[in-house]
Amino acid sequence: MPQLSRRSFLELASLAGAGFLSGCGGAIGSAGSDNFSVPVFSDVHFQPYINPLLPNATLNMDTVPANQLLVAQLDAADPSDWPAIFEGALNMTNSAPSALNTDTNYALFTLALASIKQNLGTSPAVLFTGDFLGHGLDLLYMVYFPKKTAADAAAFVDKTLTFVLQQIRAAVGAIPVYFALGNCDSYTNSGPDSTFLASNAQQLYTLALNGSGNQADVISTIKNGGYYSVEPAGMNLTIIALNTFALSPGNTVEQTMIPDQFSWLGAQLAEASTAGKKVWLLMHAPPGAVESTTGQQPNDSGQIAAATMMWAENYQEQFMGIIEQYPGVIAMSFAGHTHMDEFRLMSPGIALAITAGISPYFGNYPAYKIFTLDGVSLAPTDYSAVNCNLATSAAFGNYYTFSQAYELEGPLATSFAELYPALIESNAAMLQYQGAFFSGNNAVNPSTKMSWNPITSTNWPVYWCGIGYMDETEFFAAVNAF
Does domain 6-481 correspond to CATH entry 3.60.21.10? Predict the structure, then answer.
């Protein structure tokens, strides 16, 4: 078992709940403010090429002829007309949601947005942690239209993003949707490239943020590197959205923006600290291990030969060095990318909540979370997970509530720090966490996309150590010492 003492966990928990500054006036984040809720969703991966007539078909050359009419209609139409094409022209309003191991089709997207709308309440914000778009949109476009150009494919990607943003905006009304960008939010599937950012910064500001924040500043930093910050009206808060997929090992996206992003991040946190504001960090790819890839490696004794990491080591070290200066300022961090329901302890006092994907691409059931936040500290104190059990239902419903499932209350960062050792001390807590990891889908499936499912006694050390060990060397040693 890794040598991480109980005292260390207790120190971590005490730091997690300490240092929050009080605001002034009647804004959220000031004395006397009420608790409030915020929906958080991730990894929509909307895929327009999935024909409602063939909702579970694999996207390959065999299905191109059947999909040709749909794609041609979408390509010729304004994104505002796409719902009519999906629903009216094809008369498929009752089509089935996406199957496991596929991107999100129109039916699943509609179900998810209807559920989020139903659970909005009086929330002042909606959070999205990346990947609006499906996998390989530009490449698949050229399969359907081999005589068209890369510019045509990029234009279709832009239209797809417009459609996704329009549908989200219609569902949530005027509430700002604060987002991070993911690897599929691009023309390359390797993170937001500069051309994509230049083409879509304005509509991301207008349709997602709905005018929240300084337009010139937001658009400038999005174009510069896919990151931005916003100070929501009526809240003692700064929301900082990062482009973290750019930090991936071997990523080919332009690297010049990374030093700029880190310098900017440090300045944003310092400014928030000086002003007495809380900070929410939004990111797509989290730091730490790629548990899915590493989780396929253990031998019969649970030993691994190597660890696969989300970020390049030098970038992660720089990032940790910045955020560790502000444990009382960062009220919470949110991420996606893994498609799984999990959390990570990035640094003493700074926890990261990872929300499962709407897309069931990696064998997870579609899901999202509704966080309850303290009106003064702006830190989450609880969340409820909502999922769509594709095996039994074509609707989203309540899955579990954190405080009830784990019998923990108080700041969520503190609860996460307390839960971490309990996951190896309590069989009930371990089974709850493992069962919820794939948002309820724990059936053995030979698909390469989910060959690590279910979590077993052999690969469990990878997942447990992935919560608390962000450094590659420490993570590797912890897994093999478990």
Answer: yes
Q: Where are the alpha helices (DSSP H) in 276-351?
A: 291-294, 313-323
- Angle in degrees, CA 68, 141, 158, rounded to 5: 115
Q: 372 has which bridge partners?
A: 37, 382
What is the distance, to the nearest Å, from the Cα of residue 49 to the centroid of all Cα atoms in its chain?
Answer: 23
Separation CA 403–CA 324 (nearest Å): 27
SS3 368: strand
What CA–CA distance (Å, rounded) separates 314 from 95?
47
Phi, psi (5° rounding) for residue 16?
-65, -30
pTM: 0.90
CA distances from residue 180 to 55, 272, 300 in whole angstroms, order as listed: 28, 19, 39
Q: What is the pLDDT of residues 228-246, one digit of tens each?
A: 999 998 899 999 999 999 9
- Domains of the chain by residue range: 6-481
Q: How much is the average pLDDT of 203-226? A: 96
SS3 category, 422:
helix
User: Residue 88 gets which letter from DSSP?
Assistant: I
Is a pLDDT exceeding 80 seen at residue 297? Answer: no
Q: Residue 153: in which H helix or E strand, if any?
A: helix 150-172
Q: Which residue intervals of 361-471 are DSSP H helices?
A: 402-406, 412-425, 427-437, 460-468
